[in-house]
UniProtKB/TrEMBL annotation:
Belongs to the methyltransferase superfamily. Arsenite methyltransferase family. Residues 70-211 form the Methyltransferase domain. This is Arsenite methyltransferase. GO terms for biological process: methylation. Keywords: Methyltransferase, S-adenosyl-L-methionine, Transferase. It catalyses: arsenic triglutathione + 2 [thioredoxin]-dithiol + 2 S-adenosyl-L-methionine + H2O = dimethylarsinous acid + 2 [thioredoxin]-disulfide + 3 glutathione + 2 S-adenosyl-L-homocysteine + 2 H(+); arsenic triglutathione + [thioredoxin]-dithiol + S-adenosyl-L-methionine + 2 H2O = methylarsonous acid + [thioredoxin]-disulfide + 3 glutathione + S-adenosyl-L-homocysteine + H(+); arsenic triglutathione + 3 [thioredoxin]-dithiol + 3 S-adenosyl-L-methionine = trimethylarsine + 3 [thioredoxin]-disulfide + 3 glutathione + 3 S-adenosyl-L-homocysteine + 3 H(+). GO terms for molecular function: arsenite methyltransferase activity. Gene3D superfamilies: Vaccinia Virus protein VP39. It comes from Phocaeicola plebeius. Pfam families: Methyltransf_31 (PF13847). NCBIfam families: PRK11873.1 (NF008823). Its EC number is 2.1.1.137.
């Protein structure tokens, strides 16, 4: 499948989810259904600023918990959905800070803007756009966050370079995403519906980290790593019985990770010149 077709697939599915009025139970959704299973590996309920109606259950971690946000920060959330992480970030940066959510689904942007408006938030803004070309000026952001989004898109290299571009010197990112450790069965990787669901687009952890370093970041750290269990009823849609047994015998090849990386204080790639 071509990159543009994969992006349209993701766009259509997440626009469908935005049109619903109830919380999804999963990040991973099939092409013919809006729910498959829940890979959320963190709990937002105890975080200041959490708004349940803005949480569509689409994440695979809690990046705002590890992002080191402080009062006055300018924060960008890539793939902001209905605004969940943006509202948690707003509580951390306070009235002197600013939060910008970016999503390429107009339906998600409309939902997020509605959630912000009914709460009277004036320092949270939502922009429709492609995170491969982040609609934010260069060297203007203190912290970039994202939750289970980069994995959906094929051009991860370009996205990490864009994150580097928008961050100020000394700025950092905190991203929760899905990676593989070991070998993923080809049946899962080739399934388009699993791509929409954050799984088939996962790349090996070491390759993921190399892409971050290649973009110029320093001080890279995995702050949380959690195996993702896929139920047999989901595996059976893509694998035969022998493949399922082999998959279950080994260690889980699919993990949720939360990664933090920094741009050097001088703004140069991979450290000061």
């Amino acid at each position: 499948m071509e990159d543009k077709d994969l992006k349209k697939l993701v766009y259509d599915k997440y626009s469908q989810i935005a049109a619903r009025n109830e919380k999804s139970t999963c990040c991973c959704s099939g092409t013919d259904k809006t729910e498959v299973y829940n890979i959320q590996t963190g709990d937002y309920s105890d975080l200041k600023g959490y708004e349940e109606d803005a949480d569509l259950g689409l994440g695979c971690g809690v990046p705002t918990k590890f992002a080191g946000l402080k009062a006055g920060d300018t924060v960008v959330d890539l793939g902001s959905g209905a605004g969940n992480d943006c509202f948690v970030a707003r509580a951390e940066v306070g009235d002197t800070g600013k939060v910008i959510g970016v999503d390429f689904s107009e339906a998600m942007i409309a939902k997020a803007r509605g959630n912000a408006a009914k709460r009277g938030y004036s320092n949270v803004e939502f922009r429709q756009g492609d995170i491969e070309e982040i609609p934010v000026g260069g060297n203007s952001v203190d912290v970039v966050i994202s939750n289970c989004v980069l994995n959906l898109l094929p051009s991860k290299d370009r996205i990490f370079h864009e994150i580097f571009r928008v961050l100020k010197a000394g700025g950092h990112f905190c991203i929760s995403d899905v990676v593989t450790i070991g070998t993923m069965p080809e049946g899962l990787r080739q399934a388009a519906e699993m791509y929409v669901g954050c799984i088939a687009g996962a790349i090996p952890k070491n390759e993921y980290m190399d892409k971050i370093l290649d973009a110029g970041f320093v001080s890279l750290d995995v702050v949380k790593e959690t195996p993702i269990d896929i139920p047999n009823e989901i595996l059976s849609e893509h694998l035969n019985t022998e493949e399922i047994e082999q998959f279950k015998r080994g260690d889980s090849p699919i993990y949720s990770v939360t990664v933090v990386g920094s741009k050097s204080g001088c703004g140069c790639k991979n450290g000061c010149c």
